[in-house]
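Observation: inputs received (chain + 6-O-phosphono-beta-D-fructofuranose).
Thought: call the complex predictor directly.
Action: predict_structure
Action Input:
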Amino acid sequence: MKIAIVTGGGDAPGLNAVIRSAVLSAVGLGWTISGLRDGMRSLMVPQDYPEGPLIPLNQDSVRGITFLGGTILGTTNQANPLEPVDCTAQIVENLRAHQLEALLMVGGDGTMAIASRIAKHGFPVVGIPKTIDNDLDGTVVTFGFDTAVEFATQCIDRLHSTAQSHGRVMVVEVMGRYAGWIALESGLAGTADVILIPEIPYKLESVLAKLQERRSHRGFSLVVIAEGAHPINESYSKEKSGRLGGAAQRLVSAISEATGLDTRSVVLGHLLRGGTPSARDRLYSLRFGAAAVRALAEGRRADMVALDPPNVRYLPLEEATRHMKTVPLDCDSVLTARSLGTCLGD
Ligand code: F6P
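Observation:
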């Protein structure tokens, strides 16, 4: 078989481990495998790629990359073949023109929606779930999330000591546009006093009450806020460019104005997407990459690999993209936060 692998959307730790696993698995079956440059962009804007869209891959090209962050293939979240018009028919034609017979698509919900559309044109696709946000349905977890939570927790730990020394409120913003998984899990692990997630629009009064209570007997507080968290009756904070951003700064201004507490913000942003993948993320990535090749070998044509401990399973791409996996308000982590007295802003 002649197949290709593509990494799409925002990068996440573990992409290179997936690539290595898929390449070694495919080569082991006697297949030929290439990588698509820069997500779908190389097929959409071929004039920018005079060297062609494909990077031939073999054992040598994937040596020593399991622990590297980023993706050796490049990625983009700026070129979407479904918008403004659906050009997936053209993409499939391009793939066939390169004699490709199947595609492994590594990405989040956007990539899986594209994968599902490509499969509808009769081109075999297997999806591999990636995103630090962990908001993809159908899999217990996406790779990249564990590394992001681990790093965010380490940062919260460091901020704890300086917040304590200065008797300050530290507001830490983490990624999470629509889903608050990173904020919730790192906030719990880092023992934050307040955790604000997009799923629970927050009441400023509740946050202030918690901070005042902390001030009276501890003198410092840690707040973890997801970038998509917002006050009740208000919308997400946006930068001038229109991109999401400023959630922590907005809260810092509101806290300072209302209480005069010494309050500072730290935005972890893209730091959460970089760096070496945790051992757990490497394992997920290696397992997903190998499972995706096995899926093609078994004749699967429009499925996504998913983690279903202790195994991986496959589910139709359509099913995987039906809903976004946001934090259920009755999930165990939310209940744990409430039992511990953490303010969730409601
Ligand atoms: O990978 C998803 C995500 O991390 C979101 O949480 C975030 O809003 C987005 O990527 C930002 O991506 P970029 O700045 O690369 O456009």
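Thought: report the result.
Final Answer: Residues 145-166 form the longest helix (22 residues). Residues 10, 77, 131-133, 175-177, 227, 244 surround 6-O-phosphono-beta-D-fructofuranose (CB under 6 Å).
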